[in-house]
Specification:
- The chain is an alpha+beta fold and 632 residues long.
- It has 3 domains: 2-221, Aminohydrolase, N-terminal nucleophile (Ntn) domain (Glutamine Phosphoribosylpyrophosphate, subunit 1, domain 1), CATH 3.60.20.10; 235-371 and 489-553, HUPs (Rossmann fold), CATH 3.40.50.620; 563-632, no CATH class.
- Helix content is 44%, strand content 15%.
- It is built from 28 helices and 18 strands.
- The strands form 3 sheets. Strands 4, 5, 6, 7, 11, 12 and 13 form a 7-stranded antiparallel β-sheet that branches. It has a 6-stranded antiparallel β-sheet with strand order 2-3-1-9-8-10. The protein has a 5-stranded parallel β-sheet with strand order 16-15-14-17-18, with helices on both faces.
- Helix 12 (374-388) crosses helix 19.
- The longest helix has 17 residues, at 235-251.
- The chain is globular, with a radius of gyration of 24 Å.
Amino acid sequence: MCGIAGLFHLRTPGTVDEGLLRRMTDSIVHRGPDESGLYIGRGVGLGHRRLSIIDLASGQQPMYSDDKKVVIVFNGEIYNFLDLQKELMRAGHHFHTHSDTEVLLHAWLEWGEDCVRRLRGMFAFAIFDSRHDCLFLARDHMGKKPLYYAELQTGEVIFGSEMKVLLTHPAMVRKLDPIAVEDYFAYGYVPEPRTIFVNAKKLPPASTLLITRDRVNSPKVIWDVPFEPVAVASAAAARDELAERLQEAVRVRLMAEVPLGAFLSGGVDSSAVVAMMAKESREPVNTCSISFGDPKFNESEYANQIAQRYHTNHSVRQVDPEDFSLIDELARLYDEPYADSSALPTYRVCQLARERVTVALSGDGGDENLAGYRRYLWHMREERVRQRLPLGLRKNVFGFLGKVYPKLDFAPRFIRAKATFQGLARDSVEAYFHAVSIFKDDMRRDLFSPQLKSTLQGYGALEVMRAHAANAPTEHPLSLIQYLDMKTYLVGDILTKVDRASMAHALEVRVPFLDVRFVEWMSGLPPELKLHDGEGKYLLKQAMAPHLPHDLMYRKKMGFAVPLASWFRGPLRERIRNELLTGPLAESGLFNRQYLQTLLDQHQSGLRDFSAPLWTLMMFARFLANTSPESV
């Protein structure tokens, strides 16, 4: 795992500033503390920071073709590189190292842009091919590895593994994108391909980008989650095949020349990964978990059950319930505003893991693949009503009820009917968007200043999901919202969270549930094998029955939460007021001060629970303070 950086001159190739390229590369030294390397050519510069995992002795980058006409910088792991190497050797290629980077380089020489379609792994890489005077960028199928780029007024294209690389360049304009601001306050992150800045973009997952001297082409999509039905002889056969496929996805991720382990939260997904690792490993698996003093957030008991069952080398660290010291550090790490508070414990568990291992496997992606989120169940229950009644009738009846029914944040879900009525008054995509939004539509209207609303010209964050839904390869309501999550929440929130938190500690995280072959197969299974009789991850739990305790698999899902509500009424009471009512956020001209005051007063009086919106605002305030962007 590494970090990459670079720049490419459009039109007239000039002399590359080596000092600037080095500063850009060193801005992500945390991603690769072991080694660094630069390539400077005619109008092009590539930088690399290395975290040594495979072929420790001879895998240095940038790496060159034998004739020195092609050079690559690469971040990631290619799990099928040995198979590709054999195929390339049969085609006449010769290799000097045992690294997947060299295989990727020869794959480009043999297959060109189509080489990406053959890869199984996580990756973001850049290839400069002097034979065609072009720069080629690529990002993996699910978006596990990030890649940012921007076209500058100086006639340069710059790119890097994190926004830090781009911000290091003096010509990078830090003007806020008002559409990204709207998106952020709906989703809690800025969805691909936008960034918070107008002229910077994220290369979307499963995409490539070819840049020549005369143009920056549009990204090309090379793959999508297919949701093509797969043959299933029986539920039992599918159960057994799932276990086999998961074990194989774990097996290929155990290749490393450095200490390797796993996160063990005590949930189904991470426990399943550890169980499969234990079957493959001759030595005890290294596992680590975080515990919380508050039993509402503490899963360590279940993690200990798995650790004892599989005799792992288990480490547990209790997080201080007042551990809000990382707020400023998170804003620095993520570069863009990012509002998932579980980034706090994720940072700590990565810190703990790095004390013992360099590579860790995680259970991320299980919920999206296997319909594990509780919101999927509620959505499907509402969908049954939506399919029976016409939209016009639902808008009139349930729209009215949604307006008059009181907001009962602290009541059990079945009593909190306001959100259900509002969902039933919408179509399926809009209802799901409403369910996952942090600031609902009416809240964003109240939050934003007249100036910002005018600049948005009627744009709404719902359009992100509308665009993905229009391209979805499935019409089944459950498969559709899984697809929407894979395109938005998974890549923009979950994978971003883990990438930044892990690479802050030079820790590589591998994700078996997001293996491209596993994802393709899982997407094609009948939806009723994923969400069955109100039980999410139905088939996974059936497959893991011989390996995991029943109580662990069928208990209530906890999540990786922190006590924000009590923080903002207690130790962070004054800080959150200062963040919102003074300083960069208050001075930005983007927000309605009166509404900010209302959010604070109602939350701190105990009248409402606005902890998630307040955290979202705090992280935006910290972003403004750290980055000093130009306003919209």
